[in-house]
């Protein structure tokens, strides 16, 4: 089990997800302030400000909570975690809230870690979507609508001028990004320090995923910007999947005298890949299921991914280059471009809520251990 998990806290607070947004927000504010008052590490609860410094309100009149904890002097080492990038994916709102409460509770390990880091949690980025249990689409004027959960697996692409809110983060002109996205970007980019890591937590909520990805564990996408030649080179190489390939890969990785044959031989040189693998290994060490190669075949059947040659490596998907090729930048790509941070997205698949939350918490803890303490698993 990840240390960040307090089973009692998880059990007590699971019911919060069944409440209406205002109720949920009120409970979050009350509990956060209560925990902060006893926390050995400084932190704060606030609502996302707008351009004039007032509380930002969505079209539905809702406010966006921000939870921060860590050493304000260590802001050059800021880690951002957000949930409900797709509004209806509510489970990880609780994941991030519970992670914040656990960090407030202190303990020597977390206190030492937070000496060197500053954490920003955005548990509900899209309160209107949270409320409606759906996701946002943005038109070319930046106007948002929230249609039923998912129109099709092609949801991220720009069709009829509408684009998934995640993709709208990277739109070239500010005016086409929408008020809410602008407020979020302005807040994070005006941080006094520097964002080092940006993590976006998702869950599948589509009907298809109930069949295809039942109990598929957790998948990590790494947003890495490679030079186009480097991407082409990796895309041409193979992934070691069969027994023979695995043996050969093992030998080659020990004796690197030959030009690379497998993707791993190149990818393992990237620190971001090494760290992502360490986070994945930590989650596995916690006894939680990791996305298996067996799902890989099923994954390829989905039209959205069909047309792209996904460089998969040990269950980690390098999402940056793919979307770069398609001209799409998602939220983690956007922040990576502007701050040089490492961007990661997690997807948790159809399974019990508690399990999705545990996986999300293990990911948060793994990220803190690997990125701040430099631990390897
Ligand atoms: Zn999502």
Task: Describe how the helices and strands are arranged.
Blueprint: H1 7-13, H2 21-38, E1 43-47, E2 65-70, E3 78-83, H3 91-104, H4 108-115, E4 118-122, H5 127-132, E5 135-138, E6 144-147, E7 163-164, H6 165-168, H7 179-189, E8 195-203, H8 207-212, E9 218-223, H9 228-236, H10 243-254, H11 263-267, H12 271-285, H13 294-300, H14 303-306, E10 312-313, E11 316-318, H15 319-326, H16 331-339, E12 342-348, H17 353-372
Parallel strand pairs: 3-4, 3-8, 8-12, 9-11
Antiparallel strand pairs: 1-2, 2-4, 5-6, 5-7, 9-12, 10-11
Overview of this protein structure:
The protein is an alpha/beta fold and 377 residues long. The chain folds into 2 domains: 7-224 and 271-372, Aminopeptidase; 229-269, no CATH class. The chain is built from 17 helices and 12 strands. The strands form 2 sheets. A 9-stranded mixed beta sheet has the order 1-2-4-3-8-12-9-11-10. Helix 2 (21-38) runs parallel beside helix 3 and helix 12 (271-285) crosses helix 17. The longest helix is centred in the last third of the chain and has 20 residues, at 353-372. It is globular and about 60 Å long. The chain starts with 6 loop residues before the first helix and ends in a 5-residue tail after the last helix. Zinc ion is lined by residues 86, 89, 202.
CATH architecture of the largest domain: 3-Layer(aba) Sandwich
Structural class: alpha/beta
CATH class annotation of the largest domain: Alpha Beta
The major pleated sheet works out as: 9 strands, mixed
- What is the ordering of alpha helices and beta strands? HHEEEHHEHEEEHHEHEHHHHHHEEHHEH
Sheet with most strands: strand arrangement = 1-2-4-3-8-12-9-11-10
Helix segment tally? 17
- In total, the number of strands is 12
What does the average pLDDT come to?
A: 85
- Low-confidence parts: 303-308
Report the CATH topology name of the largest domain.
Answer: Aminopeptidase
Helix content: 40-55%
The set of bound ligands, ions and cofactors reads: zinc ion
> What is the H level of CATH, i.e. the homologous superfamily of the largest domain?
Zn peptidases
Report how far apart the termini are. 15 Å
- Domain module tally: 2
Tell me the strand percentage band. Answer: 15-25%
- Rg over C-alpha atoms, rounded to the nearest angstrom: 20 Å
Query: Can you tell me the overall shape?
Result: globular
